[in-house]
Amino acid sequence: MRRGLFLAALACALLVVPVAAQAKNHSDASKQYRKSVTLKNMLKHEQALQNIADANNGTRVAGSSGNDQTTDYIAGTMRRTKWTVHKQQFDFPFFQETADPVFARTAPDPATFAEGTDFATMEFSGTGDVTAPVTPVGPLNVPIGNTEPGTTASGCDAADFASFPAGNIALVQRGTCDFGVKAENAQTAGASAVVIFNEGQEGRTDALAGTLGHVLNIPVLGATYALGEDTVNRINGGATVQFHIATKTLNETRQTFNVIADSPWGDPNRTVVVSAHNDSVDAGPGINDDGSGTSMDLELAKNLGLKGKKPRNHVRFLWVGAEEEGLLGSQHYVDSLTDAQKSQIIAMLDFDMVASPNYDRQVYDGDGSTFGSDVSGPDGSGFIESLFNSFFDSQGQAHEPIPFDGRSDYVAFTDAGIPAGGLFTGAEVIKTPAQQAIFGGVAGVAFDHCYHQACDTINNLNHQAFKEMKNAAADTLFTLANTRGAIADSAKSRAAKAKHRRAHSARKSAAPRLGRGDWLGEFLRR
Fold first, then answer.
1. What pLDDT score does 375 carry?
2. Residue 157 sits in a domain of what CATH number?
3. Reduced to 3 states, what is the DSSP secondary structure of residue 120?
4. Considering the domain boundaries, does residue 506 fall inside one?
5. What residue ranges of the chain have pLDDT lower than 50?
6. What are the beta bridge partners of residue 261?
7. Tell me: the pLDDT tens digits for 497-510?
8. Whether 155 contacts 191, CB under 8 Å
9. What is the pLDDT of residue 418?
10. Cα 88 to Cα 67: distance, rounded to the nearest angstrom
């Protein structure tokens, strides 16, 4: 999963509206089902995923042997049930760095920059070894001053490169258009490499780790605002700055799979979809992200309908591929459906990272009552949110809303108008003292300090979080699988959403829309 700076920017809002846990009577209808989904069995799946990663260079990244074995494990596990299982193959663009990148200033005042701290290689960067002068490309905002986030237009227009010296390294600033547009314009103008430095506002200062969206032939790096600002100031002061950049990358088309399992019972015209992603990032085994969702969903599926009356609605589990490459598997699945098939899906549940070590109980703000309609789900998403909230309330467990920020597999479904919801226990965002007071854990430490790293192993899981999330997931799934009525928000929720939509409409129309290069690049890769 890809989350972070957007959520960090909303931290104050989150702290204003945490939902205080209130004990109340709750239906015991899901109790037997919840008990059947055990932590012990979920951890068995997690250990199997760890073993797969250990045998495959420590990763289960899409397009790798580790991911192929993961999808075989999921499919094999489900084929031992009475569910109908198949693997849906699709092609995707595969990117990998095959050597450590190099980034240094060779003149004046030589300095070597640190990967991860000062810079990162952009996904789909080309291979190259370049030493050349640096040319800033405007319009720049240095210093950043009061510039609104996302409005810097540096390098977005081919005309910005009208006098660019061919062979030089282009220095452009984040903002307005996709990273790939900036890099493509630079390449067309004859740049030998590109450095895209962060824009500079709060939450937009760290080293960019983005995706270009398509393959470039030249090296493309993301850098901190401080590095870019220092370079621009040196050049404006009359210095000739020279960089050395070296990248070695692999860009090719590979195949991966979605694993799809359909229940042997239930009305197919009322289908509930439950999703987790089957891949990790290249850097690690991904046992929380999203081995936790994968393992939890295996047990949710295996135990649903085993005892008592079969659920009246059809249920489909998806373990989607290439999520870490840009939500590709979920988009491929939704694109493969006809309009009639989409209309059969009454709800979608997304479970991505549900065992974070320094966890929080977070529920997607389905009706936009906290964050507004521009980061809410379609009608019915508020109803799904209320199911999770009601369960946590019944257990005396605090919870708080988070926005639909576009960083997990619900996106393809909500874009298709399908109500969605889900749970999340946190990624790289730092837990605040106020959140610590409500949820416990350690303030000043990330919810998951191993997010997208090699240390996201079997030892990175919080078992208490895992138990709490599986209970909430089981209760909500059980309710949706048995509900007869429409999945729709209450009149009160719809009114709140309409109010937020009116309040946000002017801002939304004026603000630049985040493209793939900005939200997907910044948050998804990596």
1. 85
2. 3.50.30.30
3. strand
4. no
5. 2-26, 500-526
6. 85, 317
7. 555 444 444 333 33
8. no
9. 98
10. 14
133 and 45 co-located in one domain? no
Into how many domains does the chain fold? 2
Q: 481 and 333 share a domain?
A: yes
CA dihedral of residues 310, 315, 316, 319 (deg, nearest 10): -80
Are 280 and 173 contained in the same domain? no
Query: Do residue 462 and residue 314 come from a single domain?
Result: yes
Co-location of 114 and 222 in the same domain? yes
**pLDDT value at position 209?**
86
Q: Can you name the residues that pair with 420 across neighbouring β-strands?
A: 348
CB 420 within 8 A of CB 342: no
What is the per-residue pLDDT for 405?
87
Beta-bridged to residue 102, according to DSSP, are 246
Q: What is the DSSP string of 101-116?
A: -EEEEEESS-EEPPBT
Whether 282 and 424 share a structural domain: yes
- Cα 283 to Cα 61, 323, 417, distances in angstroms: 8, 15, 34
Domain extent at residue 207: 101-247
Where helices occur in 321-380 by DSSP H, the ranges are 328-335, 339-343
Q: Which residues have a catalytic role annotated?
A: 323
Strand pairing class (267-277; 345-351): parallel
Q: Which of 219, 247, 275 is the last residue of a domain?
A: 247
What is the residue whose two structure tokens read 């009116």? 502
pTM of the model: 0.82
**pLDDT, tens digit (0-9, with 9 covering 90-100), for 173-205:** 999 999 999 999 999 999 999 999 999 999 899
